[in-house]
Amino acid sequence: MLNNKRTTTSLLKYVADLLKQVNSLKDENEKLAKKNEKLQREIERYKTYSSEQEAEVKGHKLTAEKEKSLVRYKAATILYADIRGSRDFSTSPDNIALVDSLDEILIKLQEIIAKHDLKKIKTVGDSFLCVGGIPKKNLANPVLVLLAAIEMQYLIKELYSSDRNKEIWKLRIAVHTGSITASIRNSRSQQYDVTGTTVDLAARIRHVCEDNQIIISGNTYELVKDFFRCDYWSKIPVKYQGFMQLFSVKGLKTEFSLTGKGIIPNKSMIIRIGLIQFMDLQELILDKMEKELPSDLYYHNIKHTVDVVTQAELIGLGENVSDEELLLLKTAALFHDTGHILSYDNHEYYSTLIAREMLVEFHYTQAQTEKVCELIMATKLPPNPTNKLESIICDADLDYLGRSDMIPVSNSLYYEMKERGMVESLNDWNNIQIKFISGHQYFTETARNLREVNKQMQIERIRNLIVENAE
To answer: What residues contact residue 461 under an 8 Å CB cut-off, 6+ apart?
Structure first.
């Protein structure tokens, strides 16, 4: 009996110990649960923070990529056009033929856009937008856009003026020049989006434009008024700018029209466009020379090239050359030392190779390119020109001989040649210079009048330098 009592007591004590352990485990479990809950909250906070950070980084990357794809143009020209008449389909007995006619028109308009180096942005129904001056900078873009606009109007009026649909198809065109921002929408097909106030204002002009008209802004008018017949048309209010004047374009001026109808540009007009685009070509070539010419060209550098271009134009005007001859002279002067990029020796020949490659992109004819290359080769020393243009560029190339800065310019050539082991001392160089200048002559009357007197003074200055160095 006593044993049973002891057994029961031991059992109760054992159960009590178990209960204590259970309670202790419950407490530990609750503590662990709280810690786990807290840890989960921290994990969630970390995940949220990481996601936000990742999104922010991605956002920055996307923004950076977007910014990188944006290109800003200071002077581009927007052409916004509507082909009017598609709303009259319901009254036409031959709707299918009219739709086919519209497709044909759009194809031909696209050919005109490409012909004048414009970029089509979008076509929505019977409206389309294109822009001149992108993606390659082109200072002549306002002129090219208007040539395209005039050809488009001619297409509609003349080619689609049959009795059946002459009252159906009408075209209205709005043009405005200003700054825009362009972004590539599709890199494979080189499709662009354009934005900016210039685009918005072109759209506004389109809404006030009437059928069969080309209406341009005052901005565009100032850039093209020398080439096109334009009449004041109206004005529209522009926020923060007052009123914008608008002009109606009637066609090319007679002196620039091939047939006198004001539609097709003649050779004189094409040359004028080339003279405008020369500024783009010059910027491109000078940038290429700055990046690629050897650093030890102290004389045959960008400054010399700019000098020769300037003097070629000055002497050319003095010699009463034509616009085309002036363009060829300036182009040859621009390219005549680019061959130094490839070789110091025989650089004139290498200059012609670069010219042949690049002038194609600027629509120089084969005959013009050949003439430019002949002029470049004429600058090879000693000068031996065979015609007036070669005489002009030879005089322009050695214009410094009769200028007040002849000595420092000559010294830069000395250091350039000394680097290449072509001359030893400054006295040797000055003796060479005296011999060269004494035997040199300017070939054009303009250059002789400008430089011949000073050139004789240079000989005495160099002789004095030789005496000073000898002492």
So the answer is: 406, 407
Which residues, at least 6 apart from 133, have a Cβ–Cβ distance to it below 8 Å? 73, 75, 76, 77, 139, 141
Q: Average pLDDT in the 173-178 region?
A: 96
Give CATH for domain 68-265: 3.30.70.1230
CB of 221 closer than 8 Å to CB of 208? no
CATH of 280-470, one of 1.10.10.10, 3.20.20.70, 3.30.1160.10, 1.10.3210.10: 1.10.3210.10
Would you say 363 and 280 are in contact if contact means Cβ atoms under 8 Å apart?
A: no
In the numeric block, the tokens 């996601």 are attached to 51
Residue written as token pair 């479990």: 29
- 28-37, 252-261, 426-435: the lowest-pLDDT one: 28-37
Domain edges within the chain: 68-265, 280-470
Model confidence at 98, pLDDT cuts 50, 70, 90, reads low
Query: With b meaning 16 or more CB within 10 Å and e meaning fewer, what string describes 440-455?
Result: eebbbebbeebbeeeb
Interatomic CA distance for residues 19 and 374, integer angstroms: 112
Q: What is the tens place of the pLDDT at every residue in 271-294? A: 999 999 999 999 999 999 999 999
Is residue 16 pLDDT above 70, yes or no? no
189, 223 contact by CB (below 8 A):
no
Residues paired with residue 247 on neighbouring β-strands, in sequence order: 216, 232
Distance CA(329)–CA(444), nearest Å, equals 14
Dump pLDDT digits (tens) for 310-356: 999 999 999 999 999 999 999 999 999 999 999 999 999 999 999 99
- Name which residue leads in pLDDT, 450 or 462: 450
Q: Specify the length of the chain in residues.
A: 471
- Is the peptide bond preceding residue 135 cis, with omega within 30 degrees of 0? yes
- pLDDT at position 127 is 82
Tokens of 305: 């090239």
Q: Do 68-265 and 280-470 fold alike per CATH?
A: no
CA 271 – CA 265 distance, rounded (Å): 10
